[in-house]
Amino acid sequence: MSDTDPVFFAFDRKLKLTTLKVIPVSEIETNKYPHPIWDLVATTNSVPITDFAYGMRIPGMRPRVPGATPDPLVPGVNYRLLIESGRLKAQHDFVPVPFTP
């Protein structure tokens, strides 16, 4: 069971992601090389998607480090989602909320 409610991300169009990272903002502010808690790269051809949930398996993508799994999110911590789709780059900061049964 997670300590946070599920976190979902959505786009206004289908994107073929080439990279996806989630990094605590505090690490970005204090470390030259921040450690992502979720880090995926496209295999040969990622599947176009319009949405995904934190930690889910995304068809056509794999962990950058073989066998790595996403770290659990912590309620109240500020995170940054970084995505790339070809030449397009985007980021979004989010703060997960505590799990509500």
Query: Unreliable stretches, pLDDT < 50, 5 or more residues?
Result: none
Q: What's the SSE pattern?
A: EEHEEEEE
Count of DSSP E strands? 7
Span between termini? 11 Å
**Proportion of residues in β-strands:** 35-45%
Figure out the total of helices. 1
> Order of strands across the biggest sheet?
5-3-2-6-7
Shape: globular
Describe this structure in words.
The model has no long low-confidence stretch (mean pLDDT 95). This protein is 6% helix and 41% strand. By secondary structure, it is mostly beta strands. It has a five-stranded antiparallel sheet with strand order 5-3-2-6-7. The chain is globular, with a radius of gyration of 13 Å. It has one helix and seven strands; from the N terminus they run ββαβββββ. The chain has one domain (8-94). The longest helix has 6 residues, at 25-30.
Quick rundown:
This protein has 101 residues and is mainly beta.
